[in-house]
Amino acid sequence: MAEAYAHDALLAIEPEGDLRAPGGAITVALCGHWEHDPPCPLAPHHTRAERDGDLVRLHVLFAAAPDREGEVRQKIEAALADPRWRLITASPGTVAPEEADHAARLAGG
Fold first, then answer.
1. Residue 42 — φ and ψ, nearest 5°?
2. Burial of 21 (0-12, 13-18, 19+ CB in 10 A)
3. Which residues make Cβ contacts (< 8 Å) with residue 104, sequence separation at least 6?
4. Which among 17, 26, 40, 73 is placed 20 to 30 Å from 82, CA to CA?
C-alpha cells in the first residue's frame, strides 16, 4: 500500500535557467523519461517549483510503498545533483493539509 510523502529542496538557478528542469530531472530519475504513459513505475509524483531571484524552492509530493521511501528520496536527491544548478539543501518535507486530496490520488486512494 502506497503512502504519501514530501521532499523539499532549495536550488540556486540562474534567472534565465529553466524552472521546469529540476522537475524534469526528477521525473527522469523516477520514471526513466519525462514523457511516459501513466502510472509512474516507481513513485507517482508532482513537483512544484517557486522562484525567488536566483533561488528555487522545490516541493516534491510523491507516493511510494513505505519500504521504498528511502529509495525514492535517494533518486530525487541524485537527480538534483545536476551541474545546471547548485543544490543548497534537500530534506524530507511535510505533506500540507491542503495537499491531502492530491496526495491521496497519488497514493491511489
1. -105, -50
2. middle
3. 4
4. 40
* Size (the chain), residues: 109
Which cell goes with 51?
Answer: 522562484
Q: How many CA atoms lie within 13 A of 34 on its CB side?
A: 9
Instruction: Supply the range of the domain harboring residue 18.
Output: 3-106
Nine cell digits for residue 100 = 491531502
Distance CA 23, CA 84 (A): 13
Q: What is the CATH number of the domain that holds 62?
A: 3.30.70.600
Here the cell at position 23 is 522537475
Q: Largest alpha-carbon pair distance within the chain?
A: 41
What phi and psi values does residue 87 have, to the nearest 5 degrees? Answer: -80, 120
- Per the structure, the count of domains in the chain is 1
Q: What is the pTM of this model?
A: 0.92
